[in-house]
Amino acid sequence: MYQTVLDTVRSVQHVKDCRIIEENGEIGQLFVEAYLTASDDEQRTQEIKGIIRSILGALAIKHNLDLDYRKVKVVEFKSDEESMEEVHPRIQIVAAYQRRLPRPEIVVELHCFNNTYVGTAPNTGDAAQDTFAAFNQAFQQMGFGNLQLIYLQILTNDLSQERIVLVKVNYTRSDQIQDELLGVAEIQEELPLAVVKAILSAVNRRIIIAYPNRT
Q1: What DSSP letter does each residue of 56-72 carry, written as one string?
Q2: Across all residues in the chain, what is the average pLDDT?
Q3: Residue 81: which residues within 8 A CB-CB, separation 6 or more?
Q4: In terms of DSSP H, where are the helices of 98-190?
Q5: Mapping DSSP to helix (H, G, I), strand (E, B) and coil, where does residue 113 land?
Q6: What does the angle CA 106 – CA 111 – CA 113 come to, to the nearest 5 degrees?
Q7: What is the pTM of this model?
Q8: Strand 72-76 to 26-34 pairing
Q9: Phi-psi bin for 93: left (phi > 0), alpha (psi -120 to 50), beta?
Q10: Distance (Å, whole) CA 184 – CA 153
Q11: Does 75 or 154 have the greater pLDDT score?
């Protein structure tokens, strides 16, 4: 149904790929992976805004589609080769799971700089929120700063039955500089693992910028 829309978005300069989340028969969210070249946060913001304007313009011209800019989410595309050269080492997932004994809780294990960090959170019945709490406990042990959750949503594409975790966090670096980060991951396995992947899709890119000498 939306294949021509996807083709149009992918034809926009700097766009690598995109995905549509349908809500009530309409485009609810448009997730875009794009090549970003800016070296600082201000230029990066302007670059993302420019890509969004180009996408909205192309959709209006080719499909007569007036899409709200707030429905377009742009994240940086990194190829596997680029990740090895520019982002390694990075925070990696060791495990994310629900443990029943000795008490019900969510456990998140992360690996970075040859160390493993473990965070836990009581199981309140909200696996997504509990996973974030466990992740944050492990993350704080690394000394990279603090994360505060802005929102965490589970979205469903009614057309293909895909489920996606969308998370937005406020990241305060150890030097007290703050930034809002957005991450997304498809739920292909247990929910806690997908939640951790979504958080890392946002955080890992900013960690390297904040600590370039540690790569």
Answers
A1: HHHHHHHH-----GGGE
A2: 82
A3: none
A4: 127-140
A5: coil
A6: 155
A7: 0.58
A8: parallel
A9: beta
A10: 10
A11: 154
3 state DSSP class of 31: strand
User: In the prediction, which pLDDT does 158 show?
Assistant: 65
Question: What is the token pair recorded at 138?
Answer: 């492990």
CA 22 from centroid of its chain's CA atoms: 19
- Other Cβ atoms less than 10 A from the Cβ of 200: the count is 21
Do residues 138 and 109 touch, judged by C-beta distance below 8 A? Answer: yes
How many CB atoms sit inside 10 A of residue 133's CB?
18
pLDDT digits (tens, 9 = 90+) for 136-187: 999 988 878 889 999 999 988 766 677 889 999 999 876 677 888 888 888 8
Q: Where are the beta strands (DSSP E) in 53-187?
A: 72-76, 92-99, 105-112, 115-122, 145-157, 162-173, 178-186
Name which of 80, 115, 117, 127 is nearest 95 in CA terms: 117
Q: Give dist(CA 146, CA 136) in Å, integer.
A: 8
